[in-house]
Amino acid sequence: MTLYLYGGPKTRVSMPKWYLAEKGISYEYVNIDLAARQNLATSYLEVNPFGKLPALKDDSNGLVLFESGAILQYLSENYAKEINDAATRAFDQSVDSFCQLHTGDRAIRSLQ
Questions:
Q1: CA dist list (Å): 112 to 49, 61, 63, 85
Q2: How much of the chain, in percent, has pLDDT values that exceed 90?
Q3: CA 59, 64, 70: angle at the middle one, nearest 5?
Q4: Contact 54/71 with Cβ under 8 angstroms?
Q5: Gap between the Cα atoms of 63 and 111, Å rounded
Q6: Are 69 and 102 in contact (CB under 8 A)?
Q7: Between residues 7 and 10, which one has the greater pLDDT?
Q8: What mean pLDDT comes out for the span 63-71?
Q9: DSSP states of 39-52 as a string?
Q10: Is the pLDDT score of 20 beyond 70?
């Protein structure tokens, strides 16, 4: 299983990167250079047809997500369940709140 996180400078990739690091979840970071318009390259448009960043690809199930809030929600629900202490649960709930605040709902947008 490999997670690929696509992002670049001056994008909203910082929150998913921080969450992955905080939880100790392994992933590969793919830097997309917006100035060089790499987000419009065919290879990236296959990941996210809208050409926006960030995006997350999960090889374990073929799921591709975009929007930092949806990515955080997915990671919280699928990759952080093994930790059950109160502080970690509180952190996960704060991620849920962040997602609701910034997306207006808890919907995950999937490209399959």
A1: 11, 10, 6, 34
A2: 53
A3: 125
A4: yes
A5: 7
A6: yes
A7: 7
A8: 92
A9: GGSHHHHTT-TT--
A10: yes
Both tokens of 64, joined, read 């591709």
pTM, 2 dp? 0.75
Q: Report the SS3 class of residue 81.
A: coil
Q: Where are the alpha helices (DSSP H) in the chain?
A: 14-23, 42-45, 68-78, 86-103
Residue 35: its pLDDT value, please? Answer: 94
Alpha-carbon 32 to chain mean position? 14
Query: How far is 77 from 33, CA to CA, in rounded Å?
Result: 30
CATH class of 3-103: alpha beta
Range name among 7-11, 48-52, 97-101 with the lowest pLDDT average: 97-101
Residue ranges per domain, the chain? Answer: 3-103
- Tokens found for residue 75: 């990671």
Amino acid at 11: T
* Cβ-proximal residues to 9 (8 Å cutoff; 6+ apart), any chain: 34
